[in-house]
Amino acid sequence: MTESTGAKPFFRAEQVGSLLRPQRLLDARAKWKAGEITREALHAVEDDAITEAVRMQEEIGLDVIVDGEFRRENWWIDFIERIDGIKIAGDDEVSGFKDAPDHKSGYVPKNVLTVGKVGRTGCILCDDYAMLRGTTDRTPKITIPSPSRIHYHGGRPAVSKDAYPDMDEFWADVAQVYQQEIADLEAQGCNYIQMDDPVIAYFVDESLHDNVRKLGEEPADLVKTYVRVINDCISKRKPDTYLGFHLCRGNAKSSWIGSGGYDSIAEPIFAHLDVDSFFLEYDDERSGDFDALRHVPAGKKVVLGLITTKFAPLESKDELKRRIDDASRFVPMENLALSPQCGFASVVEGNKVTVDDERAKLGLVVEVAEEVWGRA
User: Which of 229, 216, 254 is nearest to 354 (CA)?
Assistant: First the structure.
């Protein structure tokens, strides 16, 4: 289910990236962290699990294939901790996730400290991409965390003033890391990259704004800074490299952090980010309505995350089709696609669903996409 847009493919049936890890992979990672097996032994288990996950995706009928982020502890740490000058720090207690509007789930994100000059020693994701590319003849997609994740939870106080008395210099070095990473991935043949950024979506929730202000930032200004930096990070990509941008409100063990529609951030994000498509979370009442899509520029694609990865029950096909039709009031049907709202395992433990649930959800994406747009 692929439509060509110039040299860039556009997939009607999409997915966000992470998949539930099989138990043997969870066990192997635990043994590696305990020093009981080597990194090479862990990689062998990862390779086997990735190959199996690729076959599953192909059997379902997906044309865009991911590695499930099986080499990662969670969606961002394994990438960002390999950036020179970066240190993963303790929990950001003020940003705890919820499993109900008035109840914290117990999951707390980590802080990031910049302790020296930001740089990059070699490609971070090239081996991951090469392994994935070697397992499928369909389009492999690599996911990469947004640079906002380096800054948001600690703000300016978490960036060494000795290394960076000037924040513009800090952001310039961050952008160079991403430009180099994207160039190295492109040199390997990668032409589909998805940048994941739940952080920007936190700004839809007024209750989180005080956290930002306590760090000395004004929320509206910080959103604009992140947009500028992200555009710098992706500014040197090749013309035929497809760049998707995923916005969600947090996803960890079936819990979340933010609530609210996209309206308050729609204009600075949709109108100004230089990406090819937006992957948007629309799976429950926390996500608001589709009115914010009026800010999406002509020609931009929107992947509607209408199917939840947090809970097992399957959505109704008729309801999904009705909601796609509703979204088409703002974005033409030819520029829409369907996906789950997020991955199934943004953190290694995964959401509170089973592998069978995961397969059924992804199968539903393919079936509904075929019925709405046809099979290319």
Answer: 254
- pLDDT, tens digit, 9 for 90 and up, residues 155-205: 999 999 999 999 999 999 999 999 999 999 999 999 999 999 988 888 887
Domain at 2-73+124-143+180-197+218-373: CATH architecture: Alpha-Beta Barrel (3.20)
Q: Which of 143, 12, 173 is nearest to 72 (CA)?
A: 143
Residue 243 pairs with which residues in a beta bridge?
Answer: 193
Amino acid identity, position 343: G
Radius of gyration of the chain (CA): 19
Amino acid at the residue 209: H
pLDDT of the residue at 256: 56
333's tokens: 């049907």
Contact 292, 327 (CB under 8 A): no
pLDDT score of 222 more than 60: yes
94-109, pLDDT tens digit by residue?
555 545 566 455 556 7
Can you tell me the distance from the alpha carbon of 107 to that of 277, in angstroms, rounded to the nearest whole number?
29
What CA–CA distance (Å, rounded) separates 52 from 46? 10
Annotated domain spans of the chain: 2-73+124-143+180-197+218-373
3-state secondary structure of 250: coil
Q: Where are the alpha helices (DSSP H) in the chain?
A: 23-33, 39-60, 77-80, 126-133, 148-151, 167-187, 198-201, 209-214, 219-234, 263-270, 317-327, 355-373
Give the chain's largest Cα–Cα span: 58
Q: Are 98 and 249 in contact (CB under 8 A)?
A: no
Q: How far apart are the C-alpha atoms of 293 and 230, rounded to whole Å? A: 20
Average pLDDT of 23-46?
Answer: 96
pLDDT score for 6: 47
- The answer to whether residues 295 and 267 touch, using CB atoms and an 8 Å cutoff, is yes
pTM of the full predicted structure?
Answer: 0.92
